[in-house]
Amino acid sequence: MNKCICAAALLCGSALSAHAQIKAGTVLLGGGLNFSNARTESSSSPAIQTTKSKSTQFSLVPQAGYFLADNLMLGFEASYTHSSSKQEGFDYLGTLNTFTGKGNGYRLGPLVRYYKMVSDNAGFFGQVAAGYSSGHSETEGTNSYAATDKSKGGYAFLMPGFVYFPLPKLGLEATFGSVGYSKSTWESSATSFNPQEPARTSKNTESGFGATFALSSLSLGAAFYLGR
Question: Where is the signal peptide, in residue numbers (predicted)?
Answer without folding.
Answer: 1-20
